[in-house]
């Protein structure tokens, strides 16, 4: 029996396993790096062991350190989480050799799964459809092809190559990124990504849990998952589940996992891989099946049998989104910083199967969490379970839109637009969904009037906060004068550039007029001094309430509440129209250092991984100069134009912060 369990992972994965352990009476041991000292999973663990260092390779991926931590804490079992260690046969063997229970498939099975080509061959021999594999670039019969790592999973390192001229460089780049061999297979477009979650015990029983649709992806990584799939009928579900069972038995698999397939419009499917982990989208399966998959996983690890005779019936529909600290509008650039507020309304439960339809939140962060560049950018998973797909999508979109996510850029707006998109609602999705529908990248707060009202609310809330803290006459409205004079003004750096908002109050403290206008950056030295021309005033708005954290406006007879959360000089404004972060520009800004012309600066903090040029080298427009590594991904820095590299202050391995100089390119 498992008595005390160490979870060799962090964030929401560790918290998810801890939740079930508390329910079934298993003591928990967490591990944490320097960067995670105050993380929620550390607080929730019964015991926690420090792993010195901050990078994954020095902490959460250190097999020896994890085994020592488990032994020091008295654990008799180890759960690998859902990351790379869950697929590592050496880690599994080390746990077993140390006399502890390994919560996962046998090491021999993991060794087979680590060899992707061998896995495909074994599955093909069992008569499960697979795509052909090419290991020799000179023998690729046609294009496009997809380059894939020969080991590992999660979509990392995958690249589409459409002609022979770029194949060699793409293969080399993938090898550098994944640190190992790669192979090619035909790239099939307009396909769905379908997976069948399974549970297999040591007695030979294999139970599938329906199917999950994971087609809405970015960089071959899932961001929206649901079950059941709108493209799968009863007959196709039976075929997929039958193929999954055959693949599991052919590979000698034991434990929880998922068999992944590609599915085309004609109903043909091909085996991709068997992922030997409790996947991030397991929550949707728990919702529609009613089973706690972590509890079943622990049961099988203890040598128990699968407790159900066959696939459980599907109850309703569940959809999950992954909330990530990244900016979809800028090539999914990861974001780092302090998460000042993380609040999602109307949550019915966390980390556990729901007793009835509602919203579930599995989060690895809370208010005040620091999002670093060392780890994956996913902050939380939000799941909606409802009687129908349309109800689940509507519930999930509404909760996301009303959530308060302050401090770091996230993909929230994109997720809401995907869930509300007519094609998604119709079930018309595949792995190219985001490429076909660029309109989902637009921010929710996109109308001019909504932005103006947000600016007005931020200004009124700021004024209320200043009046509340004023040492004298704090009860008077901001800007009140016996003889009305100029407008109160504030300048904000908004999503589309600097804007100035102004308003006048009458002697009764009511809003007498207001305006918002775009500001030319060259005019910022005049901000707030009353020297800029006043724009046309907007329609009358009645201020019902103006407090430092909430402003209620009556706009042409319709009342609207706006929440304002100010941190430093940034106001986070949440309204029914959407959310926006507005940084107030100082009336008297300090002079800033100007970067040299044609400077290339770091778009995010990270480590310089590769430098492909030297000072004095002439480069072409678009040529790759160097790469940064952050949040497990490699981010290229290209030459914006043709020119000569005049300065190159960074070298491979250097740590850089946002805005730090990477290179100076003198244009031709």
Automatic annotation (TrEMBL):
SMART domains in the record: Biotin_carb_C
Cofactor(s) the protein needs: biotin
SUPFAM superfamilies: Glutathione synthetase ATP-binding domain-like, PreATP-grasp domain, Rudiment single hybrid motif, Single hybrid motif
Sequence ranges assigned to domain Biotin carboxylation in this UniProt record: 1-439
Boundaries of every ATP-grasp domain copy: 115-302
Upper classification of the organism: Bacteria, Bacillati, Actinomycetota, Actinomycetes, Micromonosporales
Pfam family, one: Biotin_carb_N
InterPro entries noted in UniProt: ATP-grasp (IPR011761), BC-like_N (IPR005481), Biotin_BS (IPR001882), Biotin_carboxylase_complex (IPR050856), Biotin_carboxylation_dom (IPR011764), Biotin_COase_C (IPR005482), Biotin_lipoyl (IPR000089), CPAse_ATP-bd (IPR005479)
Annotated keywords: ATP-binding, Biotin, Ligase, Nucleotide-binding
UniProt keyword Nucleotide-binding present: yes
Name this protein carries in UniProt: Biotin carboxylase N-terminal domain-containing protein
PANTHER family (UniProt xref): BIOTIN CARBOXYLASE (PTHR18866:SF126), CARBOXYLASE:PYRUVATE/ACETYL-COA/PROPIONYL-COA CARBOXYLASE (PTHR18866)
Signal peptide positions (record): none
Gene3D superfamilies according to UniProt: 2.40.50.100, ATP-grasp fold, B domain (3.30.470.20)
Residue stretches making up the Lipoyl-binding domain: 585-666
Keyword Ligase in annotation: yes
